[in-house]
Amino acid sequence: MKPAFSTELGAVYQTDCMKLFAALNDECINTVFADPPFNLGKDYGNGGDKDEWDRACDYLDWCFEWLDEAVRVVKPGGAIFVYNLPHWAYHLAMHLESREMTFRHWIAVSMKGTFPRGKKLYPAHYALLYFTKGDPQVFNRDAVRVPVPMCRHCGKDIKDYGGHRKYLNPLGLNLTDFWDDTSPARHTKFKARWGVNELKPLIPSRCIEISTVDGDVILDPFGGGGSTYEAAEKLRRYWIGTEVVDCGLIKDRFQRNLPDSRQAIPKVLSKLLTEPNPELRINPRPCQPLSKKSTMTEPKSGLNGSGSLHSLLKSSQP
């Protein structure tokens, strides 16, 4: 299998992400950014690929499979970012900790536009998990500083900062773990697929800037409309990934937003593959199943010390 679309910096394959994982060496990726389906029954462009598992534990088992592979391929000091609903994210965070990944942040990404259902609060954020394999090799705080907020009417600072405005970092304010400038992408500049929620490139771009430097490699196993690949390309990082549906939408995004990017084969990515090939061809065999011991490794204490949340969830369903 050869890439469905590639540039001088990256390549995406139209296949299941587990087939690409199977072709990658251990500890070869600097940052993994994953925005998987949320198990909401949405059609992403192919009726046979709706993200709908009948049982919650089956969805989590699938997530744990690709998360284990993400942990395997990320370098020591590298990062894994996972974007998902809070409903799933706390299970995924627990699993990453069970794989000895280091928790860095639960970033609340403001995503208003839905409505309260039943006896619940207004859901106004998605979770963006940030883990590293040990201490982070790269943490570029200055790369993601945000401008000092100013009044749109008078043009003056909104806050007085206790009279110490002159002591603020000239690059801007520290980025917090609450991102309120990330409204849903609703413009053709940011969307490749209408009727499907997509991330603005701002979100993966920040993750890439925080955790990588020029020449590092980004893996996105759920390419979607190509937001991560666009962000990586603009930041001059190498990128690789998969999308099970139509990679033509990713190509269209590049032609629209990155007209100067040139289709090519980034041969430097060949060293990531277990069977290096200058054309980046991969043998799309499935990953070897993990041992039972490895698959079942989870924290010993869950709810009230009675076992893991996932185990409790699985045992409670028929």
Oligomer: single chain
**CATH-assigned fold name:** Rossmann fold
Instruction: Report the structural category.
Output: alpha/beta
Name the helix and strand elements from N-terminus to C-terminus, one letter apiece: EEHEHEHEEEHEHEHHH
Give the low-confidence spans: 291-307
Helix content: 10-25%
Shape: globular
Mean pLDDT: 84
Strand fraction: 15-25%
Based on CA atoms alone, the radius of gyration comes out at 20 Å
Cα distance, first to last residue?
A: 39 Å
CATH level 1 name: Alpha Beta
List the main descriptive attributes of the protein structure presented here:
Rossmann fold; 8 helices; 318 residues; alpha/beta
Could you walk me through the main structural features you see in this protein, from its secondary elements to its overall organization?
The chain has 318 residues and is of the alpha/beta class. It has one domain (5-288): Vaccinia Virus protein VP39 (Rossmann fold). The chain is 24% helix and 16% strand. The chain contains eight helices and nine strands. A nine-stranded mixed beta sheet has the order 1-2-9-8-3-4-6-5-7, with helices on both faces. β1 (5-6) and β2 (10-13) form a beta hairpin. The longest helix has 18 residues, at 56-73. The chain is globular, with a radius of gyration of 20 Å. The two termini are 39 Å apart. Mean pLDDT is 84; it is low at 291-307.
